[in-house]
Input
Amino acid sequence: MKHQEKFLLESLVVENFKGFEEAIEINFSKTRSYDFNAEYVSGGVVNKGIIYGKNASGKSNIGYAIFDIVSNLTDKNNGLSLYNNYLNAHSGKDVANFIYTFKYGALKVVYKYSKKSLENILSEELLINDMRVVYYDFTKNDPIKTSLKGTETLDKNFEGMNISVLKYIYKNSKLENNEENKAFQKMIDFVNNMLFFRCLNSNNYIGFQNGSKDILEDIAETGKIKEFEEFLNEEGVKCQLVEKVNNGSKTIAFKIGENKIDFSEIASTGTHSLALFFFWYKSLEKASFLFIDEFDAFYHFELAEKIVQKLKMIDIQVILTTHNTFLMTNELLRPDCYFIVFENKIFKPLFDLTEKELRYGHNLEKIFRAKGFGL
Output
């Protein structure tokens, strides 16, 4: 059986996590057969999407929910400080439940787990094409249940272990080369290369790498100052940048006449945000999935469009959150790539919110502002 090489997140169902008291779903496979911008849906799954919603509707929390998996399966930065108040405060329940569905060619990979906190797993289950291949209940003393070929000699006594059973299997088994194992390994690789960041205030990120880097110092140390200058000029920030050394560390300065003025001292908030975007953007060829929360919080609306155009060119799954309705256009994406989250935490694509048969010529922003999508 031949597979498409693309591994994609198809959907997530999450319950009792942060602001999501009841089970909610975001489904990237609820698509239509539009004859325009076809490249932004791959195998029936949205690979470039934008989420809209009012403040406190759940846009950020769905990002945190999607990236909860990073703490289970990887050694990458898990954003621990972003996961305070892990369980929903209203429910009274002491367990959060997650169901991830991934698409890999003809294979469907489903990863289910329950947790009490970011680092406290209670149960895990992995299904490939509806067949359970791994199961473990941390509250019992039973051995690991797995049918993955190559785990026959694995020590399945897992009592007292404090890591994901999937991570344990991945690191301690010599798995055979078959379709099930390849799908399992692809899932691990995909999660290892997921990246979440926010274009707000500081470099808060989840996944992809470890440690905390100074953005400007890293750009200077890696010899990318000229490239950064060109990027800023392309995006409308006309400037000349040079290297500067402060207290033995390289950084970036604006060259104004004969003066070198530290970038951090006079750059606008929007320009700082562009520096953060550039820092991550230069590494995205290694990423699998990108979620940027409030990606254009400090951008002019035309600059926001330019950034989306850049992200559309990268062959990874990208999900953005914004309030910018200027971006809600069929010239940029399509009606199944735009999602609205409502105050009841329901996520729906635009086409599912109107009885109109949306076509390329429809003005999505105008329909949205006229309450045609219910928000």
Observations:
- The two ends are 44 Å apart (CA to CA).
- The chain has a mean pLDDT of 93.
- DSSP finds nine helices and 19 strands in the chain.
